[in-house]
Amino acid sequence: MSKICIVFDRIRSEEKLLQKAATELGHDTSMLDAKVTQVNTNSKKNDFDFGDVVLERCISYFRGLHFTAFLKFLDIPVINEFEVANNCGNKMFMTLLLKKHNVPTPKTYFSFSKDGTLENIDKIGFPFVIKPIIGSWGRGVMLIKDRDTLDAIIEIRELTDGPHDRIFYLQELINRPPRDIRVISIGNQAIAAMYRKSEGGFKTNIALGAKPELCEITNEMEDLVANASKAVGGGILGVDIMEDEERGLLVHEVNNTVEFKGLAKVTKKNIPKEMIEFVLNSIRK
Prior knowledge:
Elements: E1 3-8, H1 13-24, E2 28-33, E3 53-56, H2 61-73, E4 78-79, H3 82-89, H4 91-100, E5 108-111, H5 114-124, E6 128-131, E7 142-144, H6 147-160, E8 168-172, E9 179-186, E10 189-197, E11 211-214, H7 219-232, E12 236-244, E13 248-255, H8 261-264, H9 271-281
Parallel strand pairs: 1-2, 1-3, 3-4
Antiparallel strand pairs: 5-8, 6-7, 6-8, 9-10, 9-12, 10-11, 12-13
């Protein structure tokens, strides 16, 4: 019998389902709140109840990434690994890896200043989609149709002036149905998928009200998801796909600590059970 530690910063239904699945499989679990955990350079494994393997499930990308870095420092097995979390958490890093590994993805432009962005737009034209390089749930993702809107966004970024506000991620607008596809990938294998149908806007995040509908996983989708997973380092991932009317399936995002509540409502697959089994198998190799 193995022991799994689930690291969180807010317990959602997903974390409860994962703990339940581990218990039903006969394994002990501990729940560790990253927000109240203190570590230092003299910390040892036995100072904490990390069990045999950690499943990192923090909502905060930066908190989860840095906690994972500490687990790596202690040589504690963790899913997903630090490199995977780092690759997926930054949209620029993730997009470049997809392209480098020949995974079909929307054409994306990068610039590193206001002036560079305006010069880029002169070449790209409108409309296009702008995204923050760090972020989830569709926050900060905007469809830009004209120069006035772009100028307003640049002005806001100059005022906030965060370290990532200076990195501009601009992506072509894909001609697609009002939906995308979320696939749960475990160990480079697509295990369940859903359509996320937009309710009037162009965003398809379940957190923003999109409706889940079961999607059959095709052979093409299996291959695409496997290649996308391998590109970022594998593990437990959410692969988001758009259906371009001319080019077919395009991967536009790969998510690290993926949410699965919406998909669990429409699939017969026991997603948390398969996640727990993968985590346990990772330490048996």
